[in-house]
Amino acid sequence: MSEAHSHTHAPGEEHSHSHSHEPPQPSMAPTADPALQALIEEDFRPVPISLSDDLHNARCLEHRLEKCEPCDVDFVNLNRLATLLANNPNLLCPPPANVVTQKLSQMVTATKDEGNALFKSGLHTAAVNRYTGAANFAINRPPWEGNQLMREELSTVLSNRSAAFTEAGDYVSALADADAVIAIRRQWSKGHFRKAKALVGLHKLRDSADALRLGLSYEPTNTELLAYLSDIEKAMTKKAKSEIAEAKSEQ
Fold this sequence. Notes:
Layout: E1 2-10, E2 13-20, H1 34-43, E3 49-51, E4 58-60, E5 67-68, E6 73-74, H2 76-87, H3 102-120, H4 124-138, H5 147-167, H6 171-184, H7 189-201, H8 205-218, H9 223-249
Antiparallel strand pairs: 1-2, 3-4, 5-6
Helix pairs in contact: 3-4, 3-5, 4-5, 5-6, 5-7, 6-7, 7-8, 7-9, 8-9
C-alpha cells in the first residue's frame, strides 16, 4: 500500500513523493548455473584430512603433511589463506586487490633497513640474515593483493642480499640472488649489475660483460652499468695481453 502526498522542504520548494508501507521484499539468492555446477561436482572428490593443533591448517590424514605426494594433496595455499584470516579476526572476507597490508610493508622496510645498517658497518653476514628476514616478510603478502608491490619489495631485498653475499665472498649465492632479481624484474638495471659483480668474483669476466650488456639493452644510458663495463673490458684486455706475454715467454 502506497500513499502519495506533497509537502514543503524549504521556502518556495515543494515536491510530491510517496511513502511505501509495504514490507521490504527478501533478496533472492542467485541461481547456480546447472552446467557449471555439474562440472564442479564431476571434479569433486572427498579428501580425508587432519587439522593442525590450532585447527587453522589442513594436513593429509595419513602423514600429517600439508603437501604430500603419496596422498596427492597440496594444502599450502589454502593454509596460507586460512592463517591470514585466523590472524585477522576482523577481516570477514578478503578485501579488494588494491588494499595493501601496511603493517607488512613496514616490517619489510624496517628489516631491510636493519640489513642496510649492518652492511654499511661491514657486518655482511649479519646483513644477509636481515635481508633474508625481509624477503620472508615480502613473500607472505595475502594472495588477494596485487603482486606488483611484492615483486618490487622482494627484488630490492634480494638485490641488497646479493651485494652482501658478494662482500662476504659467497659469489655463488650472490649470483643466485642476482638471477632471481632478474627473473622478477628483468628490466631493472640493479639485477644485471649484481650479476656482473658476482661473476667477476667467480673470475668470469666475459660472462660479467655479457650481463652488463644485457642490462644496457634495457637502460642504454645507465652510468653504473657503463662504468663497470668499461672497467671489465679494461681488465679483459689486460688479462689477454698478460696471457699473450706469458705464452711468448714459454716458447
